[in-house]
Amino acid sequence: MIVAIYVRVSTRKQDETNQLPRLREIAKNRGFEVYHEYSDEASAKDANRPGWRGLMEDASKHRFDAILVTKLDRVMRSLVQLNITMSNLQTYNVKLICADIGEIDYSSPMGKVQMQIIGAIAEWEREIIIQRTKEGIEAKKAKGIKLGRKKRDDIPIETIVTLRMAGNSWKSISQDLHIPKTTLLRRKAEIENIILSRSEKEVLQ
What is the pLDDT of residues 147-158, one digit of tens each? Predict the structure, then answer.
């Protein structure tokens, strides 16, 4: 079987220490021939990310038999976009293989149900993170805590780390949390150090 490897990451460092090595090993162990490796550093909300566009263009030409990813949320976290993607892949006769759940047979009723459930959970997880953060900010405002540029105690570092590790772009995080992108980027080094540290721990475990 000829496969395309696809990874979507929050930082290039995470890519090098996590998804790609795992997918290469799976392809090797299962005797897959790798046509090409595609990658994006972007949010799964963005259906027009460049790596994904290239992948789907090649899929439409059936240059490979399947797409190999670590998890379904690497593909899309919007249920609507996920359904569109699966419909397109079915038309192209290209399978989707997730390392954590195996091949998804979206031509069967059970496969469709499985895809819907996983996709809905991924979308729900993202929305609940954003909602909790917004509620936390509103609670601070209600207590009279001033939120301004001089002292940004409202910057939810843990939430931003979680969203970045889930592949969300700085722009989408800025829009979702209503925090200026320039303000977020002032903490970029701090956030990426936390992500790198956690990625290294995962590799060592």
Answer: 555 445 557 888
